[in-house]
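Most newcomers find our protein records easier to grasp once they have seen one. A learned vocabulary of local backbone shapes supplies the integers on the structure line. An example says more than a description, so a record of this kind follows:
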Amino acid sequence: MDQTSGLDASSGLPAMLDIRQIIEANYAAVYGYAYRLARNAADAEDVTQQAFLIAHQKMHQIREAEKADRWLFAVVRSCFLKSRRRKWPAPAANLELNVNEIPESLTDHSEVDEELLRNSLDELPDDSRIVLAMFYFEDMSYKEIAAELSIPIGTVMSRLARAKGRLRHALCAKQASSDSKTSASTQADRNASAAR
């Protein structure tokens, strides 16, 4: 084996990968991605375990060891989608969303609360969350997402736009709610101080 290229010198094919090395190098990222898709630890663990089982069985499909993570993400997504089809149909999209009420951006450009973001992502329908995860977490292009999910590129674009709009709407609504609670609390403190 040629150590510099990672190819077996006799066959010119990629050298055999060790499943333990693949798991150790990618477990945290694979589990994190599975958790983002599944939204709970038990399902994420099942999907992660299934993905690594498939990886063990189909290691020969990995052509470049440094790109094993992208291949594993595709396996995780496939396992997740199959698990959803078996359990229950995906929920219908919330058609009550009025696009005219979605603000262009958050009014406060400060950091978004991670828990608030995670909860808002969890509330998205599966099809929207998957496209969003593929675009932002896997850095896939519209064309790559369309090919991977076997849907038209226009559908990818509209799902991504709707997902971003719903996420923006949810974050702004929750932020406004917490801002009004904070200002009410501050006003109550001022009234109490003035009464003394």
In short: Helices lie at 19-38, 41-57, 68-87, 114-122, 126-136, 142-149, 153-195. Residues 1-15, 88-95 have pLDDT under 50 and may be disordered.
